[in-house]
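Subject: mismatched residue count in predicted assembly?

I count 1109 residues in my input, but I want to confirm that the predicted structure covers every chain. Input:
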Amino acid sequence: MTWVNTLPLLLVLSSLVPGLIIFALKEKRHRTIRISLNVLGALLKFFWIYLIIRSLDTGLLIETRLPLLPQFDLVLRADNLSILFVILSAVLWLVTTLYAIGYLEDSPHRSRFFGFFSLCVSATMGIALAGNLLTFFIFYELLTICTYPLVVHWGTKEALHGGRTYLIYTLGGGAVLLTAIIWLHVLASSSGLSLEFAEKGVLAGSTLLAEHEAAVRLIFFMFIAALGVKTAFVPIHGWLPRAMVAPAPVSALLHAVAVVKAGAFGIVRIVYDLYGIEVAQELDLLGPLLIVACITVIVGSILALFQDDMKKRLAYSTVSQVSYIVIGVALYGPVGSTGGLIHLVNQGVMKITLFFGAGNFAKTVGVYKISKMDGIGRRMPWTMAAFTVGALGMIGVPPTAGFISKWFLGAGALDTGADWVIGVLVLSSLLNAGYFLPILYRGWFKPQQEEWPKNNQYEGRWETHKLLLIPPLITAVFVLLLGVFAGAPIGLLHWVEMIVNLEYR
Amino acid sequence: MVADIAFWLPLIILVPLLAAIGAFLFPRHSFRFAFIGTLVTAAVVFGSTGLLWQDKEVARHAVGGWGAPLGIDMVLDGLSMLMLLLTAVIGLAITSYARGYFLPKNNSSESWHQYNYFWPLWLFLWAALNALFLSGDLFNLYVTLELLGFSAVALTALVRKPAVLKAAMRYLLVSLSGSLMYLLGVVFLYAGYGTLDIALLGAVATNTPELVAAAALITVGLVMKTALFPFHFWLPPAHANAAAPVSALLSALVVKGSFYILLRVWLVALHPLADTFIPQLLSGLGMAAIIWGSLQAMRQTQLKMLVAYSTVAQLGYLFLLIPLLLRGRGDDIAPLAGIVIFLSAHALAKAAAFLSAGNLLYAVGEDRLSSLDGLTRKMPLTLAAFGVAGVSLIALPPSGGFIAKWLMLNVALEHGYWWLMIVVIGGGLMAAVYIMRVMSHLFLEARGHKSDVKPLPLCMSWPPFGLAVLAILLVFTGVLVTDMLVIGAPWLLEVAP
Amino acid sequence: MLESTQLYAIAGIVLFGMGLYALIVFPHLLRKILGMNIMGTGVFMVFVAIGYRGLDELPDPVPHALVITGIVVAVCATGLALALATQIGIKTGTARLTPDVEEDDGS
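Triage response: the counts match. Full output below for your records.
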């Protein structure tokens, strides 16, 4: 195995090993070691990513292969799509780690928290780099296992209850996923096909379609249903609002990067690299997918309107927004696909900003509900500014990143002739405005009604803890940069178009 | 000579046997005998594994120089080696753990009784298991099976409380009925074919009513001892009430001994009956075991009872693939690999679970689930051990249980047995329910709770965690196990010249 | 008319059945243990009967060896069972195995 082929494995290990070490660290005494390990893991990751990108340019196949069973290998492969997700995860993880250090200052069980936190990163890396269904499944379920202790971190009855709901949904989805995978494997082995992800779909042009068309169709819907749990399709989205019992860094993580994105990423892989977009179109699989996504977009936004709890409103907003990605995937055509993939990145950055903001409001002044937010912009102007950028991005206001995604999705809809999707996009943007603008109005323009429940002061007379303030500012800047520089030569657009072009030729 | 495995084979049985006798005769030094016996036996087993891996062929040792069919042969092939290895690894953990668990704190005669008698009985059990895995003829298997049963019952009865003694008595009676049925079946086989050597029987057996009668008796007898539904009733009380290291041994290894004999006998001697109803019946009972055992486990309020019912459920998985295994023997090693990996993963994870439960009992004094709240601060390693073991029991990736499940599902669906798939996946979800019940109690923060939690000695906190981690690491051994099992497949043990 | 070996074999099987019945049905431990012994005796009888090779030949020694081994095992089994039964008698005051399987741990 050449050194290049160890890179995907090293990427996964760069968080796995620190994570395992962190479990053994003592809470207070080893605080510096813990922080250093976290940061070291992140920096190593960036180094490996740099090496991988350099090698990708030369057209090399970068793949780690470990035989698990005589006919089944663990395959970690770095291609453009995986690296896109890897970079998104790595950057946002670093930022969230800093945030979490600030947020959890002096809380119990920090070693346990950061240990599982790191394991989640590894699991996400594994999902991104998975080269076949078995590998994908292993890391997908690993993510479920590692996120559970984070969801129940506070150890209260509510937390345990939220965790239990979370597991019921995700393990149920996992069972359906396993059934679909094994079924497909068995069908494929009879035609001698090995189910590794390949551009344009590994099923494209195989005899499988001719012999077992009905089964292949059914399996696709099983995949969508199973992956749809984590992607929070309506009506299997119920776990997401209940998982808000987790600490704010975890909610930021689950919603921006890890769990929901893993589901959406899974759907991307299934449609593009397993079935292939042409096959999916031929079998009429994209239509139902589009409908489910649109329903989720609308219903999620409507439900968000009725929430007073900030995190719950953001949760329903996520339910709605992640399905934009699926809309992009389901629109047959390079423009729509571009929109979907861009939104994968954009939604992550925007949503994490919003959750950081929500976490700051809760931690610094004890505000959890939107109705109590009047005048908070005066007390915490920088946080509120970051929050505003994120909110505007969600609505789709230029020059934020959100505008770019919605533009492409709209254009893609026109391209395919599914004009009604534009109606869905417009309606959803209006609804977004409907539930975000009041927050901005309250925060900036309304006078403060009553004393803040708590009022933590920080050194240097900054509005909040350094580590709680800097991350949202960083991500808010990213939202703007992603919007303004999207079309630049090394910008996001260029990268995504590279991926999309491989699918459609 | 040292590089010849046949030289080492008798030692695998003799070392624990001699250590047991020494520990019994000299109670003052019982732990020393146990300690040395454990290490030496484990070393011999590991060494033999290496030698077998190198040679890649079946090893035989004719005891006393007389060969089969009149003499007793020790036979070592891939399957036996894996079982011996599993036993050795768990044995290391048990010896370490029991040292801490049984060490008398309060000088009562009862605790000294337990401490002194545990070591010889445990070593006898180990010797019996090793002898069982090395046997090549049916009557030797009977003797070793009885040895195993007696040691197990005596170990169960170490704790001299009424409920435990009654559970041990039931266990003994069921065990004896089972072995006598097995023996009667063996008699029928001898009457029909004039030989007790499994390999020879394999060569001459044909599908006749006599063979069916013998098969029925042998199967029922062994199934009673393996606690397959509906003969499982004796297992939960015995496994739950015994001392923790004993429970671990019973669930992880003892029940697997009779299952191993079932595998051997069916794979070789009874293979003409592969298409009859008996294998299908076993598979059906396995499904019932999974469903019934999981349902009962979900209802329990005591931790060890929960884990014991989980054993009843998990044993069902072993029987699911038996019809497929018998059809494809020799051509396809996948069903056997699935069963063996599952068996190993279950042994490691279940031992870890029982040892963790023992730790929790040790610390808190009782094992009601509700009294486990908030223990995570005091015993993080135990919580981790149970959690990690739970991952393998639920068969979530990445674990040995998952790899086994994957293999089983693939094999099942390839042959069109889709109902097996439903049961296996459903079983996994049910296991998740009862395992997560325990985990949520462990994660719950309880205020002002345990101030009187006894601290755990190191020799008790590491073994369960180590075993649980091994259960996870099994996920990487798929290819190794398959290659090892090929040694000696298709399980027609060669007839000695 | 049945040959004597067949008669012995059938008698052995009948004894086996009777012993099994006693083991299962009677609650008194001593009866269960006796039943177990009778089961064993039944099996041994069948075994011995098989070894018969005719009036003019020596019987097959293999079943004899096995039966002797079996008797030794049965003796050990009986010893263990009786010791356990005695302990139960001491601790519970009765030598009956009450049919409650789901007993709570008496700690």
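Strands of chain B lie at 59-62, 73-76. Marking this ticket as 'not a bug'.
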